[in-house]
Specification:
Strand content: 15-25%
Number of helices: 9
Order of helices and strands: EHHEHEEEHEHEHHHHEEEE
Distance between the termini: 38 Å
Helix content: 25-40%
Number of strands: 11
Radius of gyration: 20 Å
Strand order of the largest sheet: 6-5-7-1-8
Shape: globular
Structural class: alpha+beta
Largest sheet: 5 strands, mixed
Amino acid sequence: NYSYLGFNCRPDGVEHKKFFDDKRVRRAIAMLISVDEMNVVLNKGKNKRMIGPVSPLKKEYNTELDLIDRDLEGAKALLEEAGWTDTDGDNIIDKIVDGEKLSFEFDLHYMTTSVVWRDEAQMIAEALYEAGVKCNITPLDFAVHYDRARNHKFDAMLAAWAGSSAPEDFTQIWHTESWASKGSNFTGFGDATSDALIDSIKYTIDTDLRYPMVKRLQEKIYDEQPYVFMFASTRRNVIHRRFGNSDMYFERPGVIINNLKLLAN
């Protein structure tokens, strides 16, 4: 699994303003967030950082993509390049968008299912403010959070996806049809090129052909930055020593109970 900050890349411009329709802005936000620091503070540094939606345990993981480190000055430069500057001295950057002055102040939705989501949101808000971006953290019940996400009624959101060791099918989360039909492509990522890759990956069995396509899709997601990918959690399993045949597996819960053998005292 992995956690992420997702952007509304196709906002309507009315209820949700055009903060994240520019990939330079999305990359700048990624450069402002210190994922390593969050991992140390919230997870004692034990979780695994992610660069995209494919587990580093898989052969099709793209090893050529670098983790995005915090770079405050680089992020400020990207925001300025995208037209965001502080023109009125209120410490919040702004820009003329569709004929109106827009201050960079957005809502970040997170679920109330765990205190960790709140702590992540607070750390993100503090990091972004250093570049003149105001992030209003907004707690939501899980059902409300999900409903707003699939209806594209958000600026940015914190959430997570679970995976498996099976070959990836990227349709549900990354295909444009899943955005149009209010599926799990919450951000609006994708175009004809990424859709063609996803469709081809789904029906290609030969790994020599499929793996390069999966890597190209990872490159495109990395370039467009619809998510700030956070980290995959570390699974923690404990099996009492009185049980033998205690094999571990990739799939959750990580152990097959029926395989365990109760040892004699």
